[in-house]
Design the sequence.
């Protein structure tokens, strides 16, 4: 198993931390992991992205231009990474704020209205957890017990009391995932 | 008949009133006759000997006339790159805080190329001693303008005199670093008369004691002559120093240690 | 139980030096390596091992603080990124001249000038061929993973003291910023001052009556003596060349088309090999781990076996000069690289190999 993921959005949306939680959880589940962020001034407000790889084997390149899954949180990132999804791969995006939607017909496209849900649940900080849940619904590469360990590892201990709320958001994310475009016959 | 005076008859134990400080090596000093460096070296070594610090001392030599100071001082020494002695001394003192650590620097080294290292070591209050010999000129490289060269003073690179409009003013770095809370004792002395030599030795003793008491950085400037660079005889240069250097660089304590 | 952590490359080497018994770190912040100093400050090293960590006023001050500490026989280091390493060259040359051991980390970013903060490999010449003034070499270690960032802390110090030489870990922004799993070792105790006096009799520790004074200087105005010092240095570099070459080969048993790459580029090439092998291409990788000493013999051996060598670097082609020296005309050696902070993509690298050596077929051998 190797899962190559790009997560991209604005700084402050929890892009890097979502990747970190996945990487920690993967590590706790005894997988090989890599977490390669974009870094620099753009982290401080502009766009941010991170490549996360989870694998049962030694990871070759931590830097990729084709991904199994793209998790997209803003328009710029959608424009930038739509063509970087492998044929037959997956794109998950939050449609809020998106005016120009993906058009590819050789990948599976899903939406998750995480921003709306986070507002509705009054848990805006949990925005990225709804997204993460949606991803895990489609790619159950991490078992829930290890997800919890990943949260424990990546969150500072003063935030550990928020873990149950985060887990709830992950579960909710699985429910609010919607298929937008599914390729009729699986490629490959 | 009077006894004939010979070298042997004079050099008798009972006649000795002055001897080489044991912490100075037998090697002949390479400084020009009349230069103040030799006296400054000797005073520091006398104090280290009297305070029984040889086995605790690590000195840092600069680039400049005293680049070869380690040839004359019988202590462990490191030779630093031009201007970097306070950084080197910081590295030593931070890793060996119980050792006695000093730098010995000239004006070009300390107040031009090493200004940053000097100010920041002082500002951090590194618990070291800086002995700063200021003769207003680059001696070793052949008499070029230094940051402390006086206005209108002629040097190889200010042959018509230091024009302050284009070449700037003499840098009073000692007054500058005295303003920093990290320094505990800042003084300006000279070694051109026996009385001044005695005062300078006292200042060096006080600086060393400050370090042993972990009070912060002590800074002893020694205004000195450079008779070769100034193109004067030693006596002329001392007179010129009194008349011209001291008004710009007045002698005395600038900051005294808190009790 | 194994102590495993998920860490950034910069954090891993910081933890690595603490555990390797480092006595002192002196550094100045610069992207993309500031996490080294941040991690060390956060780790409360003074309480943990007694290690001194100091933020200096500049890279110049940092390297000369390292000089002062190293001359006392201490295990000391600094880290920076390209522009800062340029500033440090004075001190590095002085340490070469005085044979002071130390660990240097360059988390390379694109240049010249202020350049970019994105990863690059354009400091190869500076690290391996040049740097400061005078005839000297650094041992240069090129990590390709976060684990190696960690491992090379201890290896670097060991080599530095074995040969009294400066060891540079030549990393880049990608390795520094990415997180991977790291297996951590037990803490190695720092050397006591008594051990240092015994093991490093050259160190300045205060002259005692039982020995002559120790002097650390790179100056000798007598050219005959200065030549002797230089010959001594060259003999040391020769011993290092004979004993310390390190490299890794992947898929090289039946290789026909060889990638040579180090650091991040080697990771990209690993993926390119996977993609190539899926297409039935016999591609493989030689990854130099020491850039000085360079694995010339391994390049020479493989050059006789393969139909083409593609040297992949995030530069305009610097290591390729060493690869060509090693190949010595036995096979064509070509360059592929991206500049200015761009990391090449695996398929881009493979395509280039195919374009140059495979699709046009048999124009490779012996035409270099």
Sequence:
């Amino acid at each position: 198993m190797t899962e190559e993921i790009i997560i991209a959005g604005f700084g402050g949306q929890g892009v890097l931390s979502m990747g970190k939680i996945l990487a920690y959880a993967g590590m706790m589940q005894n997988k090989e992991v890599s977490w390669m962020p974009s870094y620099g001034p753009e982290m401080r407000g502009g766009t941010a992205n991170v490549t996360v790889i989870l694998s049962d084997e030694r990871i070759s390149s931590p830097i990729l231009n084709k991904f199994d899954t793209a998790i997209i949180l803003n328009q710029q990132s959608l424009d930038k990474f739509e063509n970087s999804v492998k044929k037959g791969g997956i794109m998950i995006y939050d449609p809020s704020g998106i005016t120009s939607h993906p058009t590819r017909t050789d990948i599976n496209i899903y939406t998750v209205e995480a921003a709306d849900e986070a507002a509705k649940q009054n848990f805006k900080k949990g925005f990225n957890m709804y997204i993460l849940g949606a991803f895990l619904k489609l790619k159950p590469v991490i078992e829930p017990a290890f997800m919890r360990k990943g949260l424990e590892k990546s969150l500072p201990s003063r935030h550990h009391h928020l873990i149950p709320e985060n887990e709830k958001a992950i579960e909710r994310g699985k429910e609010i995932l919607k298929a937008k475009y599914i390729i009729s016959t699986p490629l490959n | 008949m009077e006894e004939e005076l010979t070298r042997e008859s004079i050099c008798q134990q009972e006649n000795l009133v002055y001897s080489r400080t044991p912490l100075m090596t037998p090697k002949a000093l390479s400084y020009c006759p009349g230069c103040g460096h030799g006296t400054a070296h000797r005073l520091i070594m006398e104090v280290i000997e009297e305070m029984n610090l040889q086995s605790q001392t690590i000195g840092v030599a600069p680039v400049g006339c005293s680049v070869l100071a380690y040839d004359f001082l019988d202590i462990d020494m490191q030779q630093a790159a031009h201007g970097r002695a306070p950084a080197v001394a910081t590295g030593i003192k931070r890793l060996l805080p119980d050792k006695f650590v000093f730098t010995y620097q000239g004006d070009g080294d300390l107040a031009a190329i090493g200004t940053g290292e000097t100010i920041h070591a002082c500002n951090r209050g590194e618990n070291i001693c800086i002995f700063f010999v200021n003769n207003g000129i680059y001696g070793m490289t052949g008499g070029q303008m230094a940051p402390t060269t006086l206005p209108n003073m002629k040097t190889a690179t200010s042959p018509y005199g230091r024009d302050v409009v284009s070449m700037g003013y003499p840098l009073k770095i000692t007054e500058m670093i005295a303003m920093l809370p990290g320094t505990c004792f800042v003084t300006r002395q000279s070694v051109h008369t026996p009385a001044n030599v005695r005062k300078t030795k006292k200042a060096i003793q006080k600086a060393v004691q400050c370090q042993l008491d972990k009070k912060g950085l002590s800074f002893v400037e020694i205004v000195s002559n450079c008779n070769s660079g100034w193109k004067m005889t030693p006596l002329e240069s001392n007179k010129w120093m009194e008349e011209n250097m001291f008004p710009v660089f007045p002698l005395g304590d600038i900051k005294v240690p808190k009790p | 139980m194994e102590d495993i952590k998920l860490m950034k490359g910069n954090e891993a080497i910081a933890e690595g030096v603490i555990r390797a018994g480092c006595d002192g770190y002196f550094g100045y912040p610069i992207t993309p390596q500031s996490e080294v100093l941040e991690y060390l400050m956060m780790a409360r090293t003074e309480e943990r091992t007694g290690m001194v960590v100091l933020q200096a006023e500049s890279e110049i001050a940092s390297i000369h603080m390292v000089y002062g500490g190293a001359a006392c026989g201490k295990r000391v280091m600094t880290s920076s990124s390209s522009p800062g390493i340029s500033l440090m060259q004075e001190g590095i040359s002085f340490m070469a001249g005085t044979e002071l051991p130390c660990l240097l980390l360059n988390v390379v970013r694109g240049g010249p000038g202020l350049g970019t903060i994105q990863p690059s490999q354009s400091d190869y010449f500076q690290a391996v061929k040049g740097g400061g003034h005078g005839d000297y070499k650094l041992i240069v270690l090129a990590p390709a993973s976060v684990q190696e960032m960690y491992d090379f802390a201890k290896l670097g110090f060991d080599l530095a003291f074995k040969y009294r030489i400066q060891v540079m870990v030549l990393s880049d922004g990608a390795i520094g910023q990415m997180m991977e799993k790291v297996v951590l070792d037990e803490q190695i105790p720092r050397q006591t001052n008594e051990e240092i006096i015994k093991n490093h009799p050259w160190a300045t520790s205060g002259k005692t009556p039982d020995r002559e004074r120790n002097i650390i200087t790179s100056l000798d105005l007598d050219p005959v003596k200065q030549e002797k010092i230089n010959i001594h240095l060259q003999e040391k570099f020769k011993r290092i060349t004979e004993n310390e070459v390190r490299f890794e080969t992947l898929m090289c048993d039946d290789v026909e088309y060889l990638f040579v790459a180090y650091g991040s580029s080697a990771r990209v090439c690993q993926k390119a090999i996977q993609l190539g092998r899926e297409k039935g291409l016999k591609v493989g990788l030689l990854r130099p781990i020491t850039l000085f000493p360079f694995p010339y013999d391994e390049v020479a051996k493989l050059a006789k076996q393969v139909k083409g060598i593609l040297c992949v670097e995030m530069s305009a082609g610097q290591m390729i000069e060493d690869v060509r020296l090693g190949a010595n005309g036995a096979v064509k050696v070509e360059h592929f690289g991206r500049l200015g902070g761009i990391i090449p993509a695996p398929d881009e690298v493979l395509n280039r190999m195919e374009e140059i050596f495979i699709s046009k077929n048999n124009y490779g051998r012996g035409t270099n």
User: Anything to note?
Assistant: The CA atoms of residues 53 and 116 of chain B lie 29 Å apart. The radius of gyration of chain B is 19 Å. The beta strands of chain B are 57-61, 76-79, 100-106, 129-134, 137-138, 144-145, 183-190, 217-223, 252-255. The longest helix of chain B spans residues 194-212.
